[in-house]
Amino acid sequence: MPGFIDPSGIALKLTIQMSSMKAIVYRKYGEPDVLHMEAVEKPKPADDELLIRIHAAEVTKADCEMRRFRFPVKWFWLPLRIALGVTKPRKPILGGYFAGVVESVGKNVSKFAPGDRVFGATRLRFGAYGEYLCLPADYTIAPKPENMSFVEAAAVPLGGLNALHFMRKANIRSGARILINGAGGSIGTFALQIAKTMGAEVTAVDSAIKEEMLRRAGAEHFIDYNKQNFTTSGQSYDVIFDMVASSDYSGSIKSLNPGGRYLIGNPRLSDMLRSIVTTRFTDKTVTFAFAGEKEEELLALKEMIEAERIKSIVDKVYPPERAPEAHRRVEAEQRLGIVVIDMEQS
Asked: What are the sequence ranges of the domains in the chain?
Protein backbone atom coordinates (compact mmCIF):
# COMPACT_ATOMS: atom_id res chain seq x y z
CA MET A 1 0.00 0.00 0.00
CA PRO A 2 1.22 3.53 -0.79
CA GLY A 3 2.57 5.24 2.30
CA PHE A 4 2.65 2.02 4.32
CA ILE A 5 5.55 1.89 6.84
CA ASP A 6 6.75 -1.46 8.03
CA PRO A 7 7.64 -1.04 11.74
CA SER A 8 9.63 -4.27 11.75
CA GLY A 9 11.91 -2.84 9.03
CA ILE A 10 12.50 0.33 11.03
CA ALA A 11 13.28 -1.72 14.14
CA LEU A 12 15.73 -3.87 12.20
CA LYS A 13 17.46 -0.77 10.80
CA LEU A 14 17.75 0.76 14.29
CA THR A 15 19.14 -2.50 15.68
CA ILE A 16 21.80 -2.62 12.98
CA GLN A 17 22.71 1.03 13.61
CA MET A 18 22.98 0.45 17.37
CA SER A 19 25.20 -2.63 16.91
CA SER A 20 27.62 -0.97 14.50
CA MET A 21 30.02 1.96 14.62
CA LYS A 22 32.23 3.95 12.30
CA ALA A 23 35.97 3.35 12.36
CA ILE A 24 39.10 4.22 10.41
CA VAL A 25 40.13 0.87 8.96
CA TYR A 26 42.99 -0.58 6.93
CA ARG A 27 42.57 -3.99 5.32
CA LYS A 28 46.02 -4.21 3.75
CA TYR A 29 49.50 -2.82 4.39
CA GLY A 30 50.50 0.19 2.37
CA GLU A 31 50.54 3.95 1.96
CA PRO A 32 48.16 6.29 3.85
CA ASP A 33 45.38 5.86 1.30
CA VAL A 34 44.74 2.31 2.56
CA LEU A 35 43.00 4.02 5.49
CA HIS A 36 39.27 4.47 4.97
CA MET A 37 36.04 4.88 6.93
CA GLU A 38 33.99 1.74 7.39
CA ALA A 39 31.00 0.56 9.42
CA VAL A 40 32.14 -2.25 11.75
CA GLU A 41 30.65 -4.15 14.63
CA LYS A 42 30.43 -2.15 17.84
CA PRO A 43 32.33 -3.94 20.64
CA LYS A 44 30.60 -5.21 23.76
CA PRO A 45 32.37 -5.05 27.12
CA ALA A 46 33.17 -8.28 28.95
CA ASP A 47 32.51 -8.50 32.69
CA ASP A 48 35.88 -6.89 33.52
CA GLU A 49 35.88 -4.29 30.74
CA LEU A 50 34.85 -0.72 29.96
CA LEU A 51 33.11 0.42 26.80
CA ILE A 52 34.62 3.81 25.98
CA ARG A 53 33.27 6.29 23.45
CA ILE A 54 36.43 7.67 21.84
CA HIS A 55 36.55 11.44 21.45
CA ALA A 56 40.15 11.76 20.24
CA ALA A 57 43.14 9.57 19.37
CA GLU A 58 46.77 10.42 18.74
CA VAL A 59 48.31 9.60 15.35
CA THR A 60 51.72 8.12 16.15
CA LYS A 61 54.77 7.10 14.18
CA ALA A 62 54.04 3.55 15.34
CA ASP A 63 50.60 3.75 13.68
CA CYS A 64 52.28 4.76 10.42
CA GLU A 65 54.91 2.04 10.74
CA MET A 66 52.29 -0.64 11.38
CA ARG A 67 50.18 0.61 8.49
CA ARG A 68 53.14 0.23 6.10
CA PHE A 69 54.74 -2.56 8.12
CA ARG A 70 58.08 -0.81 7.88
CA PHE A 71 60.10 -0.13 11.05
CA PRO A 72 63.38 1.73 11.69
CA VAL A 73 64.50 -0.99 14.10
CA LYS A 74 64.60 -4.33 12.25
CA TRP A 75 65.24 -6.95 14.92
CA PHE A 76 61.57 -7.36 15.91
CA TRP A 77 60.23 -7.52 12.33
CA LEU A 78 59.45 -11.26 12.29
CA PRO A 79 57.72 -11.55 15.69
CA LEU A 80 55.67 -8.44 14.91
CA ARG A 81 54.68 -9.77 11.49
CA ILE A 82 53.46 -12.97 13.09
CA ALA A 83 51.62 -11.10 15.85
CA LEU A 84 50.02 -8.41 13.68
CA GLY A 85 49.26 -10.39 10.54
CA VAL A 86 51.45 -12.03 7.89
CA THR A 87 49.54 -11.16 4.70
CA LYS A 88 47.15 -8.52 6.02
CA PRO A 89 46.47 -6.75 9.33
CA ARG A 90 44.97 -9.00 11.94
CA LYS A 91 43.64 -5.94 13.80
CA PRO A 92 42.40 -3.51 11.15
CA ILE A 93 41.71 -0.56 13.50
CA LEU A 94 44.84 1.31 14.58
CA GLY A 95 45.20 3.70 17.51
CA GLY A 96 46.95 3.10 20.80
CA TYR A 97 46.32 6.34 22.75
CA PHE A 98 43.00 8.03 23.38
CA ALA A 99 40.68 10.20 25.41
CA GLY A 100 36.97 9.60 25.76
CA VAL A 101 33.97 8.93 27.98
CA VAL A 102 33.00 5.65 29.62
CA GLU A 103 29.76 4.50 27.98
CA SER A 104 29.15 1.37 30.06
CA VAL A 105 31.00 -1.08 32.30
CA GLY A 106 31.00 -4.84 32.85
CA LYS A 107 29.36 -6.28 35.96
CA ASN A 108 32.70 -6.83 37.72
CA VAL A 109 33.96 -3.26 37.21
CA SER A 110 33.77 -0.90 40.20
CA LYS A 111 36.70 1.39 39.41
CA PHE A 112 34.88 3.34 36.68
CA ALA A 113 31.30 4.35 35.99
CA PRO A 114 29.36 5.50 32.92
CA GLY A 115 30.04 9.17 32.24
CA ASP A 116 33.63 9.14 33.53
CA ARG A 117 35.99 11.14 31.33
CA VAL A 118 39.18 9.15 30.83
CA PHE A 119 42.42 8.94 28.86
CA GLY A 120 44.89 6.14 28.43
CA ALA A 121 46.63 3.47 26.37
CA THR A 122 45.25 0.41 24.59
CA ARG A 123 48.48 -1.62 24.77
CA LEU A 124 48.47 -4.13 21.91
CA ARG A 125 44.70 -4.11 21.53
CA PHE A 126 44.84 -0.91 19.44
CA GLY A 127 41.39 0.20 18.24
CA ALA A 128 41.35 3.88 19.25
CA TYR A 129 40.61 4.91 15.65
CA GLY A 130 37.02 3.77 16.18
CA GLU A 131 33.95 5.40 17.74
CA TYR A 132 34.01 2.85 20.56
CA LEU A 133 36.64 0.74 22.27
CA CYS A 134 36.53 -1.99 24.93
CA LEU A 135 39.41 -2.32 27.36
CA PRO A 136 39.96 -4.18 30.65
CA ALA A 137 39.45 -1.91 33.65
CA ASP A 138 42.99 -2.70 34.87
CA TYR A 139 44.63 -1.28 31.73
CA THR A 140 46.48 2.05 31.75
CA ILE A 141 43.40 4.26 32.06
CA ALA A 142 42.92 7.27 34.33
CA PRO A 143 40.58 10.23 34.79
CA LYS A 144 41.21 12.89 32.15
CA PRO A 145 43.02 16.00 33.45
CA GLU A 146 40.42 18.62 34.36
CA ASN A 147 42.29 21.42 32.58
CA MET A 148 42.57 19.65 29.22
CA SER A 149 40.26 19.10 26.28
CA PHE A 150 39.82 15.57 24.92
CA VAL A 151 42.16 16.43 22.02
CA GLU A 152 44.87 17.69 24.38
CA ALA A 153 44.44 14.67 26.67
CA ALA A 154 44.70 12.16 23.80
CA ALA A 155 48.09 13.70 22.99
CA VAL A 156 49.49 12.83 26.44
CA PRO A 157 49.77 9.05 27.05
CA LEU A 158 52.30 7.99 24.39
CA GLY A 159 54.78 10.80 24.84
CA GLY A 160 54.13 11.37 28.51
CA LEU A 161 54.36 7.76 29.67
CA ASN A 162 57.54 7.02 27.72
CA ALA A 163 59.18 10.32 28.62
CA LEU A 164 58.43 9.95 32.33
CA HIS A 165 59.76 6.38 32.28
CA PHE A 166 63.09 7.43 30.77
CA MET A 167 63.49 10.66 32.75
CA ARG A 168 63.07 8.69 35.97
CA LYS A 169 65.71 6.23 34.73
CA ALA A 170 68.01 9.18 34.00
CA ASN A 171 68.20 10.09 37.68
CA ILE A 172 68.37 13.78 36.80
CA ARG A 173 69.59 16.22 39.43
CA SER A 174 69.14 19.97 39.47
CA GLY A 175 71.66 21.62 37.15
CA ALA A 176 72.33 18.46 35.12
CA ARG A 177 73.03 18.95 31.42
CA ILE A 178 70.79 16.77 29.27
CA LEU A 179 70.65 16.42 25.49
CA ILE A 180 67.48 15.07 23.84
CA ASN A 181 68.04 13.76 20.33
CA GLY A 182 64.74 13.77 18.44
CA ALA A 183 63.27 16.32 20.83
CA GLY A 184 60.47 17.40 18.50
CA GLY A 185 58.50 14.14 18.58
CA SER A 186 55.72 13.05 20.92
CA ILE A 187 58.13 11.55 23.46
CA GLY A 188 60.81 14.20 23.04
CA THR A 189 58.53 17.16 23.76
CA PHE A 190 57.38 15.60 27.03
CA ALA A 191 60.91 14.50 27.98
CA LEU A 192 62.06 18.10 27.55
CA GLN A 193 59.32 19.44 29.82
CA ILE A 194 59.75 16.74 32.47
CA ALA A 195 63.53 17.24 32.49
CA LYS A 196 62.92 20.95 33.10
CA THR A 197 60.70 20.16 36.11
CA MET A 198 63.66 18.17 37.48
CA GLY A 199 65.94 21.18 37.16
CA ALA A 200 67.91 20.15 34.05
CA GLU A 201 69.54 22.38 31.45
CA VAL A 202 68.26 21.00 28.15
CA THR A 203 69.79 20.88 24.68
CA ALA A 204 67.27 19.85 22.02
CA VAL A 205 68.34 18.22 18.74
CA ASP A 206 65.97 18.18 15.76
CA SER A 207 65.32 19.90 12.42
CA ALA A 208 65.42 23.70 12.22
CA ILE A 209 61.67 23.98 11.66
CA LYS A 210 61.11 22.80 15.25
CA GLU A 211 63.50 25.16 17.01
CA GLU A 212 60.98 27.84 17.99
CA MET A 213 58.52 25.27 19.34
CA LEU A 214 61.21 23.51 21.39
CA ARG A 215 62.55 26.74 22.83
CA ARG A 216 59.01 27.69 23.88
CA ALA A 217 58.78 24.29 25.58
CA GLY A 218 61.86 25.14 27.63
CA ALA A 219 65.02 24.14 25.73
CA GLU A 220 67.97 26.45 26.51
CA HIS A 221 70.02 25.20 23.55
CA PHE A 222 69.14 23.87 20.11
CA ILE A 223 71.11 21.89 17.52
CA ASP A 224 69.90 21.50 13.93
CA TYR A 225 71.00 17.97 13.04
CA ASN A 226 71.13 18.93 9.36
CA LYS A 227 73.92 21.41 10.09
CA GLN A 228 75.75 19.94 13.06
CA ASN A 229 76.43 16.51 14.56
CA PHE A 230 76.07 16.84 18.32
CA THR A 231 78.65 14.09 18.87
CA THR A 232 81.38 16.25 17.25
CA SER A 233 80.36 19.59 18.78
CA GLY A 234 82.86 19.39 21.62
CA GLN A 235 80.06 19.63 24.21
CA SER A 236 79.46 16.98 26.85
CA TYR A 237 76.40 16.03 28.85
CA ASP A 238 75.37 14.27 32.02
CA VAL A 239 72.46 12.58 30.23
CA ILE A 240 71.71 11.86 26.58
CA PHE A 241 68.20 10.69 25.75
CA ASP A 242 68.15 9.38 22.20
CA MET A 243 65.00 8.71 20.18
CA VAL A 244 66.80 8.39 16.82
CA ALA A 245 67.36 4.77 15.78
CA SER A 246 70.29 5.59 13.46
CA SER A 247 72.37 7.47 16.04
CA ASP A 248 76.12 7.07 16.43
CA TYR A 249 76.45 4.90 19.55
CA SER A 250 80.20 5.44 20.06
CA GLY A 251 79.93 9.17 19.44
CA SER A 252 77.08 9.45 21.94
CA ILE A 253 79.05 7.61 24.63
CA LYS A 254 82.04 9.89 24.04
CA SER A 255 79.76 12.92 24.46
CA LEU A 256 78.90 11.92 28.03
CA ASN A 257 80.56 13.35 31.10
CA PRO A 258 82.20 10.89 33.54
CA GLY A 259 79.42 8.88 35.18
CA GLY A 260 77.01 9.94 32.42
CA ARG A 261 73.89 8.09 31.36
CA TYR A 262 72.81 7.21 27.81
CA LEU A 263 69.13 6.32 27.38
CA ILE A 264 68.05 4.76 24.06
CA GLY A 265 64.40 4.93 23.07
CA ASN A 266 64.72 3.02 19.75
CA PRO A 267 67.59 0.55 20.33
CA ARG A 268 69.09 -1.52 17.55
CA LEU A 269 70.17 -5.02 18.48
CA SER A 270 73.82 -3.92 18.21
CA ASP A 271 73.14 -1.06 20.65
CA MET A 272 71.58 -3.47 23.13
CA LEU A 273 74.61 -5.75 23.01
CA ARG A 274 77.11 -2.89 23.26
CA SER A 275 75.21 -1.38 26.17
CA ILE A 276 76.08 -4.40 28.32
CA VAL A 277 79.80 -3.88 27.75
CA THR A 278 79.62 -0.12 28.26
CA THR A 279 77.69 -0.38 31.51
CA ARG A 280 79.84 -3.16 32.92
CA PHE A 281 83.32 -1.98 31.96
CA THR A 282 83.11 1.84 32.00
CA ASP A 283 81.86 4.50 34.38
CA LYS A 284 78.94 5.25 32.03
CA THR A 285 75.50 3.65 32.06
CA VAL A 286 73.36 2.72 29.07
CA THR A 287 69.62 2.06 29.47
CA PHE A 288 67.14 0.83 26.87
CA ALA A 289 64.43 -0.60 29.18
CA PHE A 290 61.09 -0.19 27.45
CA ALA A 291 58.31 1.75 29.16
CA GLY A 292 55.75 -0.34 30.99
CA GLU A 293 53.05 2.33 30.51
CA LYS A 294 51.81 1.96 34.09
CA GLU A 295 48.68 3.47 35.61
CA GLU A 296 50.79 5.10 38.34
CA GLU A 297 52.78 6.91 35.67
CA LEU A 298 49.62 8.15 33.96
CA LEU A 299 48.30 9.45 37.28
CA ALA A 300 51.63 11.20 37.89
CA LEU A 301 51.32 12.88 34.49
CA LYS A 302 47.75 13.94 35.30
CA GLU A 303 48.99 15.54 38.51
CA MET A 304 51.77 17.41 36.69
CA ILE A 305 49.34 18.60 34.01
CA GLU A 306 46.79 19.87 36.53
CA ALA A 307 49.61 21.66 38.36
CA GLU A 308 50.48 23.26 34.98
CA ARG A 309 54.04 21.91 35.05
CA ILE A 310 53.73 20.13 31.70
CA LYS A 311 51.30 20.21 28.78
CA SER A 312 50.69 18.51 25.47
CA ILE A 313 51.84 20.40 22.38
CA VAL A 314 49.30 19.75 19.62
CA ASP A 315 50.27 20.42 16.02
CA LYS A 316 47.15 19.68 13.96
CA VAL A 317 43.75 18.09 14.51
CA TYR A 318 42.00 16.09 11.77
CA PRO A 319 38.51 14.60 11.39
CA PRO A 320 38.35 10.81 10.87
CA GLU A 321 37.74 11.16 7.14
CA ARG A 322 41.14 12.85 6.77
CA ALA A 323 43.12 10.13 8.52
CA PRO A 324 45.35 9.56 5.45
CA GLU A 325 46.32 13.25 5.57
CA ALA A 326 47.07 12.96 9.29
CA HIS A 327 49.39 10.00 8.61
CA ARG A 328 51.18 11.95 5.88
CA ARG A 329 51.69 14.82 8.31
CA VAL A 330 53.35 12.51 10.82
CA GLU A 331 55.51 10.78 8.23
CA ALA A 332 56.73 14.06 6.70
CA GLU A 333 58.45 14.96 10.01
CA GLN A 334 57.30 18.56 9.59
CA ARG A 335 54.84 18.59 12.47
CA LEU A 336 55.31 21.06 15.29
CA GLY A 337 53.90 18.90 18.03
CA ILE A 338 51.43 16.04 18.19
CA VAL A 339 48.86 15.09 15.53
CA VAL A 340 45.41 14.09 16.77
CA ILE A 341 42.25 12.70 15.17
CA ASP A 342 39.09 14.21 16.66
CA MET A 343 36.58 11.38 16.39
CA GLU A 344 33.74 13.78 17.16
CA GLN A 345 34.36 15.80 13.99
CA SER A 346 32.59 14.82 10.80
From this structure: 20-156+312-342, 159-287
